[in-house]
């Protein structure tokens, strides 16, 4: 399953907002430095979707705020 994620970093209120079946907005507190925001996005998605974080992989947009994520 592929998901399309819009990431908002340095947010005061972190969380996951579902727009439709495959589009999400993920807000994280971390800054996009040294992959910390990507790690936080994976953790937030895993908690929201109730799955293990190792099942989530960023396919595209590792340095962008728009990401393509695959769930195995």
Give a verbal description of the structure.
Strands 2-3-1-5-4 form a 5-stranded mixed sheet, covered by helices on one side. 19% of the residues lie in helices and 38% in strands. The protein has one helix at residues 36-49; strands at residues 2-8, 15-18, 23-27, 56-60, 66-71. The protein has a domain at 1-13 and 32-65. The N and C termini lie close together (7 Å). It is globular, with a radius of gyration of 11 Å. The protein is an alpha+beta fold and 72 residues long. Strand 2 (15-18) and strand 3 form a beta hairpin. The protein is built from 1 helix and 5 strands. The model has no long low-confidence stretch (mean pLDDT 96).
Provide tags for this entry.
five-stranded mixed β-sheet, 72 residues, 19% helix, 5 strands, alpha+beta
Describe the structure concisely for a colleague.
By secondary structure, this protein is of the alpha+beta class. It is built from 1 helix and 5 strands; from the N terminus they run βββαββ.
């Amino acid at each position: 399953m592929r998901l399309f994620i819009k990431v908002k970093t340095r947010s005061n209120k972190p969380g996951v907002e579902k727009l439709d079946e495959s589009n999400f907005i993920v807000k994280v507190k971390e800054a996009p430095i040294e992959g910390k925001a990507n790690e936080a996005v994976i953790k937030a998605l895993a908690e929201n979707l109730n799955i293990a974080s190792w099942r989530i992989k960023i396919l595209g947009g590792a340095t962008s705020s728009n990401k393509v994520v695959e769930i195995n």
